[in-house]
UniProtKB/TrEMBL annotation:
Species annotation: Gluconobacter aidae
EC nos: 4.3.1.12
Alphabetical keyword list: Lyase
Keyword Nucleotide-binding applies: no
Protein name: Ornithine cyclodeaminase
């Protein structure tokens, strides 16, 4: 008699968060709440840093950019992100960074979430920067310079307002249109915004300096004479070998904090320094095992390159929000026959014909 393929089990369907649903999720939660709660998830995972598998991301470099895989896991969940960085894309009308990611159940290996991460990476990068600044920035910091006003700049501003209390922004970009775009997008958000003509002008009066440029080269976005005592530098743009933003002398005057030094020494600002130059891991500061800002005159530098645990935290946060919001689709991703030994039989029965 004819057989039909069995209906997929519930394990075959994986929640998928599309770009449209990610945007809806942010609006449903509210971007301020989203960034604050995401920062709390990040902080919670940094506090249990030792529980995670850690490895530098796997990178495939080309003349045009880089494509990377970023994996990590704890005892219950495995996560990874696919991400690229192609600075030349902007001139071609394409995103510089695109990404997607997945969570899987460690016990079975079955995927439990698939999500866009182009938007989510922008949100987690900003939330991580602001979380770090809670521990490293001057007390009562109110003014931030943002040098590089591309796709990440508004997210940084919103996260620093929500988590740190930043009220004034000083914007600079080589392309003034980018600064005007950033100011326009942030109008009505309560910021006091100044578009500056030079990077030197942008850092005047700033408590925090965020550098977030895209060019894949060793650049001098900040020179040593631009950085005074007591500043916190949030260096975001340097994120691969041969790509930095700060003059080396600034590093020698700063107390440097990093996510995962084995990766940061390859990709971050500290690729300019000897391998034994002292660096403090951010998780140690959050856990109270190391000092963050120790004096009003100290220059602190968060050498941020992005690490897989941050993506894990972001995916975990999104997954926890799905049941209440319903903002996901179900993808039939996993072949899950009723008899796990009979995958071929499942394929044959799917034709709806007699089987021998």
């Amino acid at each position: 008699m004819p057989f039909s393929a069995p209906a997929p089990s519930h394990l075959a369907f994986v929640p998928f968060v599309s770009v449209q649903n990610m945007m809806a999720l942010v609006h449903t939660i509210g971007i301020d709440t989203f960034l604050r709660e995401l920062g709390e998830y990040l902080e919670a995972d940094f506090k249990r840093w030792s529980e995670f598998d850690k490895t530098p991301r796997v990178a495939a470099h080309s003349a045009e950019g880089v494509i990377e895989l970023m994996p990590t896991s704890d005892s219950s969940l495995y996560g990874f992100k696919y991400v690229n960085g192609h600075p030349k894309n902007m001139k071609e009308g394409l995103q510089t960074v695109t990404a997607f990611g997945m969570l899987a159940d460690v016990a079975s290996g079955y995927p439990v979430l698939l999500s866009e991460m182009t938007l989510l990476t922008a949100l987690r990068t900003a939330a991580t920067s602001a979380m770090a600044a809670k521990y490293l920035a001057p007390a009562n910091a109110k003014t931030m310079a943002i040098i590089g006003n591309g796709a990440q700049s508004e997210f940084q501003a919103m996260a620093f307002r929500e988590i740190v209390g930043i009220q004034a922004l000083r914007l600079y970009d080589l392309d003034r249109a980018a600064s005007e775009k950033c100011a326009r997008n942030l109008s009505g958000q309560g910021f006091d915004i100044t578009i500056c003509k030079t990077s030197e002008e942008a850092v005047e009066g700033a408590d925090i300096i965020t550098t977030v440029t895209a060019d894949k080269q060793c650049a001098t976005i900040l020179s040593d004479n631009m950085v005074g005592a007591g500043i916190h530098i949030n260096a975001v743009g340097g994120d691969c070998p041969g790509k930095t933003e700060l003059q080396r002398d600034i590093l020698l005057r700063s107390t440097i904090f990093a996510e995962y030094p084995p990766q940061t020494r390859i990709e971050g600002e500290i690729q300019q320094l000897p391998e034994d130059h002292p660096v403090t891991e951010l998780w140690q500061v959050i856990n109270g095992e190391a000092k963050g800002r120790a004096s009003d005159s100290q220059i602190t530098l968060f050498d941020s390159v992005g690490f897989a645990i941050e993506d894990f935290s972001a995916l975990r946060y999104v997954r926890d929000k799905l049941e209440a919001t319903g903002l996901y689709e179900k993808l039939d991703m996993v072949a899950d026959p009723d008899d796990p030994r009979d995958l071929f039989g499942m394929l044959q029965r799917s034709k709806g014909t007699d089987t021998p």
